[in-house]
Amino acid sequence: MARHAHVYRRQAVYWWRRRIPKHLRQLFSTSEIRVSLRAHMAGEAATRAARLRVITDLAFQDLERAVTTGLTLPDQTFDQLVNQLVQDELDRCERERELAGPRTEADIQQAVLDHQRQRARLQQALRYNVYADLEDQLAPAIEAVQDVATESDLAVLQRRAARGLMDAAEINEAREQGIYSREGRVSAVAANGPHLSAPVSGPLDGASFQTQREPSQPSQPAAPAPARTSARNDDNVLTLKRDRPSRSGSTSPYAPGRPRRRGANVGASPTGPRISEIKEAFFAKQTKNMKRHYRVAIDLLQDGLDDALISDITRSTVVDVIVLISQLPKVHGKSAKETLRLRELVAVTNAEETAAIEAAVQSARDNGGDRKTIARAHLEARTERLKAQQSLHNHRARINSFLTWCHKEGYLPQALHIDIDDIPRQVRDDARNRDQKKGARMCWGRDKLQALLTSSIMTDPNKDFGDPMFWAILAGPHQAPRMEEFLQLGPDDIEVREQVPVMLIRPGLGGHAKTDAARRVVPIHPILIAAGFLELVEQRRREKSHWLFPMLDHGHDGRFSSIFTKRFSRYREDEGLYDPERDYHSFRSDFQETLEDADVPPNARKRMMGHRVEDITEGKYRKRDYPITRKAEYINLIDYGIEVERVDGIPVVKLRDTAQPSGPMPADEVMS
Q1: Which band of pLDDT confidence, cut at 50, 70 and 90, is reported for residue 439?
Q2: Cα–Cα distance between 538 and 204 in angstroms, integer?
Q3: Separation CA 170–CA 351 (nearest Å)
Q4: What is the pLDDT of residue 539?
Q5: Is the alpha carbon torsion for 212, 214, 217, 218 positive or negative?
Q6: Model-level pTM greater than 0.85?
Q7: 68: pLDDT confidence band, cut at 50, 70 and 90?
Q8: Listed residue (660, 602, 609, 328) closest to 479, CA to CA
């Protein structure tokens, strides 16, 4: 039994012993807990010891929570108080709608606006943690426990109640527009059965908050477990969830690499793995290119469900999360500083949109606008959301893959698949109506390229010699790198082969290659060498820098391009050259068309651009690459009618009078 923690043997009986944590010993009269397991067999003793370990873990966690935070009320009490408060608010507003009679469009818009203002007030209270203006709304929950709660309990209850009311306002806003979930009140009761927790009777009268359950086997007492109360509202497309205690200090038996199989009696225990405990095992089974996309979808699911138990996931809760995802702003995920959770971000976005709409409508009225002008101002002030049909489809498909995997691994009792028809029709219609698909990416063309290549950063003699914007714009149409491929270059990625300076596009420490075909060797164009690119490489080597552009920051996804893309977009806007159909990747189209016009073989173009060769003869029977010297000849054919001169060592781009192909750089001027 040496391998079983806390278990030892005294004569023929196994005992269990565990030390009490030092910071909790002041609450006990002894320094350890010691009990007899009343077992003579090693296997039975190990089973009972494991149960005691779980029970003491929970007990120590509650005691530590009481000592460190001053909280005396359990989480299930907070949950029931908040849930009842939210349910009362939802029932009150629903009753008003039921008795309101026929309503006009103006009445509907006014009701929606009232709930948006209520949500904004709650958001303001949560932001500053001041709830004086919400005393009347929070009073039912506070009065129910004020005689037994500490100040810390009341502070926690106030914040959670405010969060719950903010969710209720969001639900009411949807209901004012006729948005309800597919599963109504009757289907929810039929699906959950009599095992649902009994609601608190009366208007939060402080009655017993203990969760009541009907025992499935009265003759056998159930194992002790903390009561949980689900805060799901199956009457609406949105879900209410409250905070759960931190699990960071516990060791999960469902860590990746230890999946629980279907034969492990999944339904025998009220507990089970949470999404956070098994998602890494799911990600490990995905391909490298798709792992990042699956992580985004499952992280949103985990956030939206408050890291729920896998066994608690239902069709309606998953649909609720997908609806929340559809309400995210279009720029979601593009900032490394984004820290708000899913529901908080949606609430903040809605509040900001409400404020923007009110300001736009008021401005239109002040300027004497007619009804159509005001309506147009209202529409233009709306926040652009992540509601493209393809986005909804991608998130739904990846969540379905995760749910299918959970069922196969035995974590989910029943197979669960979210169909497109499960998503409320209004959400689908809104996604279709607001779906703005990008047009086909177009090449810049000679005139626009010349305008960009002679813009302010390219002609400024006072810029920094290593400015990544200058070098990225210059290299884009001449080398055809993907943005990340160029920004991740380091001094070791620049070499001389066959007396030709080349750049190596390859994965490595901090480097990424989109596909296997993206790994390639590309000769450096003479225009970059004339601008001093090789001198920049030597400078970085002397500085012992790992990157050519060490001043760049990684984005939240670990890539340079996620931040640099924004800078490039702002630069084009400032220069009056912005076109959504012409971005950095469009440089590759100009590269391809220029070489095609010069009769460069298609497969040679594919190899230099990092595309897979599909031709059977070329792709299967030609394993070696084209010679460096031949690829250099092809690269030298690229000419956009510009030249570079050095002003005090700083490269400055200007137009040539006549466009002539630039000659190759002499071998004695390249790096040694």
Answers
A1: very low
A2: 73
A3: 10
A4: 93
A5: positive
A6: no
A7: low
A8: 609
